[in-house]
């Protein structure tokens, strides 16, 4: 029986099966459960509100388009965030190509400025920056792979093995990325967590 | 030694009891904009998509296969029993079709003399006078069939 292949606790996979068979309410339940973690993972991974919204929509569109082929071979969260990982990789690739394609600014050139995509508009970038605390700023400063491992762990609670599966790397690699991320974040936050006591001002 | 503390840090972190996880969970938890929610939920409705497709592609496969088989059989039968295949004992059937127009059938083939009834009658009279009665009778029958309404003078 098909349902025996998934974990008993994974009711989300059951919801996805119901959605595959045409139950739109099951999708609404899945969406309500995962929209927050997925959005925050993308927002803090791509570090831009506009881009996060674009990739977020892309992830769900992919899930909707491929629902007929869904089989619960793993936790639903692993399935969903694997799609998200791939969409984020595509975004970073597109973004890199776009940056490479942008001509070097020449003050004498009369060419028009290239059209700036939605996610690179200064107001959207500022919108993300303003929301950052010290911890989120430290997360944003992590290397891409370490940042993703940390965000997956925090937003989904998945194990290192599941994070390795999502990011298509060996378990040891995923563990190493997470280890370095944790260490860097702790180091970057230590001065804030343990502020030096200011000397008392004395007034004569 | 930094490398010695790493496993402890990771294990502590993975247990979920680290200050780092605690602090992360205290951060704001932004959600996608409502407009984005609406777009995704709208796109997820499967019913309109299905109603636009009364037949799935897979469901047409048996019909396509059956049509192919029927066409193949019909082609083979046409080759074996079709009009091009002649059996040795077949005899061609000749059907004579005679078409009549408004004029008598001979009218198109008649000579210049026959188009002139008076001249034709004069020739027939000449044949009789020469003693060629049978030929004159034949010509007279032809004349009658060609000009059934022609009033022949008594001396003819």
Walk me through this protein's architecture.
The complex is a heterodimer of chains A (204) and B (156). Chain A has 204 residues and is mainly α. Chain A has one domain (9-98, 126-190): Butyryl-CoA Dehydrogenase, subunit A, domain 3 (Up-down Bundle). Chain A is 67% helix and 0% strand. Chain A contains 9 helices and no strands. Chain A has helices at residues 11-20, 24-46, 49-65, 76-101, 122-130, 134-141, 144-156, 160-167, 171-193. The longest helix of chain A is centred in the middle third of the chain and has 26 residues, at 76-101. The model of chain A is unreliable at 1-6 and 107-116 (pLDDT under 50). By secondary structure, chain B is an all-alpha fold. Chain B has a domain at 110-146. Mean pLDDT of chain B is 76; it is low at 102-108. The A-B interface holds A 19, 22, 24, 27-28, 31, 35-36, 39-40, 43, 53, 56-57, 60-61, 64, 67, 131, 133, 135-136, 139, 153-154, 157, 160, 175, 178-179, 182-183, 185-186, 189, 193 and B 2, 6-7, 9-10, 13-14, 16, 18-21, 23-25, 27-33, 36-37, 39-41, 43-47, 50.
Give a brief outline of the structure.
The complex is a heterodimer of chains A (204) and B (156). With 204 residues, chain A is mainly alpha-helical. Chain A has a single domain, classed as Butyryl-CoA Dehydrogenase, subunit A, domain 3 (Up-down Bundle), CATH 1.20.140.160.
């Amino acid at each position: 029986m098909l349902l025996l292949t998934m974990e008993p606790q994974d009711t989300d996979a059951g919801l996805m099966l119901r959605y595959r068979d045409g139950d739109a309410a099951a999708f609404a339940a899945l969406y309500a459960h995962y929209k927050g973690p997925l959005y925050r993972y993308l927002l803090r991974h791509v570090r831009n509100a506009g881009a996060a919204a674009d990739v977020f929509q892309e992830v769900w569109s992919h899930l909707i388009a491929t629902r007929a082929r869904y089989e619960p071979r793993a936790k639903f969260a692993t399935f969903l965030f694997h799609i998200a990982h791939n969409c984020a990789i595509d975004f970073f690739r597109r973004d890199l190509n776009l940056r490479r394609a942008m001509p070097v600014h020449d003050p004498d050139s009369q060419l028009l400025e290239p059209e700036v995509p939605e996610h690179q508009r200064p107001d959207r970038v500022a919108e993300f920056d303003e929301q950052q605390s010290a911890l989120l700023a430290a997360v944003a400063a992590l290397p891409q792979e370490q940042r993703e491992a940390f965000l997956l762990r925090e937003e989904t609670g998945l194990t290192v093995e599941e994070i390795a599966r999502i990011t298509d790397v060996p378990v040891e690699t995923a563990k190493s990325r997470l280890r370095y991320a944790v260490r860097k974040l702790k180091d970057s936050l230590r001065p804030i967590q343990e502020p030096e006591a200011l000397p008392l001002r004395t007034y004569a | 030694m930094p490398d010695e503390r790493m496993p402890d840090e990771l294990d502590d972190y993975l247990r979920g009891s680290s200050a780092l996880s605690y602090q992360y969970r205290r951060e704001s938890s932004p959600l996608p904009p409502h407009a984005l929610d609406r777009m995704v939920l709208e796109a997820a409705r499967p019913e309109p998509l299905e109603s636009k497709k009364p037949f799935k592609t897979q469901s047409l496969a048996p019909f396509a296969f059956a049509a192919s088989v029927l066409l193949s059989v019909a082609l083979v039968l046409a080759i074996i029993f079709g009009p091009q295949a002649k059996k040795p004992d077949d005899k061609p059937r000749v059907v004579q079709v005679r078409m009549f127009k408004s004029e008598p059938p001979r009218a198109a083939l008649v000579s210049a003399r026959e188009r002139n009834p008076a001249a034709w009658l004069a020739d027939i009279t000449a044949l009789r006078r020469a003693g060629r009665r049978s030929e004159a009778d034949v010509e007279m029958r032809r004349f009658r069939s060609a000009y059934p309404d022609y009033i022949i003078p008594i001396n003819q």
